[in-house]
Design brief:
The complex is a heterodimer. By secondary structure, chain A is an all-beta fold. Chain A is built from no helices and 11 strands. In chain A, the strands form 2 sheets. In chain A, strands 2, 4, 5, 6, 9, 10 and 11 form a 7-stranded mixed beta sheet that branches. A 4-stranded antiparallel beta sheet of chain A has the order 1-3-8-7, with no helix packed on it. By secondary structure, chain B is an all-beta fold. Helices cover 0% and strands 53% of the residues of chain B. Chain B contains no helices and 10 strands. In chain B, the strands form 2 sheets. In chain B, strands 1, 3, 4, 8, 9 and 10 form a 6-stranded mixed beta sheet that branches. In chain B, strand 5 and strand 6 form a beta hairpin. Chain B is globular and about 45 Å long. Classes of the chains: A mainly beta, B mainly beta. Chains A and B meet through strand 5, strand 9 and strand 10 of A and strand 4 and strand 9 of B.
């Protein structure tokens, strides 16, 4: 199993540009999550999904959108990129929390907005 | 709001036990404590979790105080590869699901 994969690894955007961060998992996990990590800080939840077609906001959803059309994929869309969105973005997946307690994280995408 | 407080950094000699403390004084009765670590800015890696009993697995032990206001992660024989940022996390229930509330973590350096 590849686990959780993320693309791209690195990206530089100009202010106002948009992009989609890709995330895929091959563990048949229903739950998927997007986090951001600012320098020296812990991770903050942006959006999460409990299954295909179902998404909900986390702690810091402003400026982002998600979709979940399949179990495997959970893309994160940035519209009108701003310097405040410079961060490292992690995608994670898990079984339903009542069944398993471990979230599996991808390697991250480092995004810089200039 | 972060629900955990950890020292920002600690050193430990290789081969010795590393004891990483965490304060979670506002934890609710049904909220679990999780520990993850992050090596070289990779994705966090699960270590262990617990509710009120002490827990042990192949990686570490978790000691939770009786009042559940604090806990300690113990790496029994630290190696250089254990150098990482360790996050103590409270898992809270919110809007029908569970969410991790990360703090700022402890940067553990294992010294040769």
């Amino acid at each position: 199993n590849a686990g959780v994969t993320q693309t791209p690894k690195f990206r530089i955007l100009k202010i106002g540009q948009s992009m989609t961060l890709q995330c895929a998992q091959d563990m048949n996990h229903n739950y998927m999550y997007w986090y951001r990590q600012d320098p020296g800080m812990g991770l903050k939840l942006i959006y999460y999904s409990v299954g295909a077609g179902i998404t909900d906001k986390g702690e810091v959803p402003n400026g982002y959108n998600v979709s979940r059309s399949t179990t495997e994929d959970f893309p994160l869309r940035l519209e009108l990129a701003a310097p405040s969105q410079t961060s490292v973005y992690f995608c994670a997946s898990s079984l339903p929390p009542t069944r398993s307690n471990e979230q599996f994280f991808g390697p991250g995408t480092r995004l810089t907005v200039l | 709001d972060a629900k955990t407080t950890q020292p920002p950094s600690m050193d430990c000699a290789e081969g010795r036990a590393a004891n990483l403390p965490c304060n979670h004084s506002t934890i609710s009765g049904n909220e679990y404590v999780y520990w993850y670590r992050q090596i070289h800015s990779q994705g966090p890696q699960y270590i262990i979790h617990g509710l009120k009993n002490n827990e042990t697995n192949e990686m570490a032990s978790l000691i939770i105080t009786e009042d559940r206001k604090s806990s300690t992660l113990i790496l029994p024989h630290a190696t250089l590869r254990d150098t990482a940022v360790y996050y103590c996390i409270v898992r809270v229930r919110d809007s029908g699901t569970y969410k991790y509330i990360f703090g700022t973590g402890t940067r553990l350096k294992v010294l040769a």
